[in-house]
Specification:
2 domains; six-stranded parallel sheet; single chain; 10 helices; alpha/beta; EC 1.5.1.5; Rossmann fold
Amino acid sequence: MELIDGNQIARQVTEELAEEIGKLPENHRPKVAFVRVGEDPASVSYVRKKEKTAAAVGIDSDLHVFPSDIPKEELFAEIDRLNADPSIHGILVQAPLPSHIPDQEAFDRVSAEKDVDGFHRINLGKLCQEDPTGFVACTPSGVIELLDRSGVSIPGKHVVIVGRSLIVGKPLSLLFLRRHPQGDATVTVCHSKTPNLEEITRQADILVAAVGRAEMIKGHMVKPGATVIDVGINRVEDSSRKSGYALKGDVNFEEVSEVASHLTPVPGGVGPMTVAMLMRNTYKAFQIAQD
């Protein structure tokens, strides 16, 4: 079994980006604005990692933090201000947001040209139409990049995705379906209402778990020799750890590693790729703004 090292591949992507951005004048660099509402510890940690990666590749960043009780209209006015600022090329609204601010409404408030998260309905529509001028959500594009750089061929393969979210499952299914050297797959999307799930997952040449349930995919659910991509990241109570929890994927790593040909770990698999692809999208937004 070959372990797909997301940290190593993400490092390749960011080093390539840093080399490209390093050729630009110091006063003419891509810039991304991070918008965070509240002090959720996970959100604080995620944004800090994105800021650190941006700095490492030469992308300037601004952090805009708002209280969790900010009225929706006030937050949207702040997003409008960032949309209108020509010095900012990308805007990321960190989810989840407080319950009074629907995530998708906030994503759609960001200008489609600055939507480096790839969640705006226009960018989802462009993906559906195979229009390369749009931005693709970072986790799905990271999955494709992992497979490509690991030498896993996609065309003609049967891909099974477990999970149908707008952030991962749906856009990823469209990427696999594209008429493209990294597409041309036959795709099955499963979800909580799918009967006989095990029957379907065992047909997959490439199995993607993106359902948000710890260790849901067991060894007997995987076809021998399949490539398995674990998108899930779940906190599971673990009293033996100082933090009181352990991070587990949607895949039972021990069991599936005995069956699969390629497998991503959690952590250190898809997660680092999400941040790397965000930086690539920001650089793309910067390039488009120059045209």
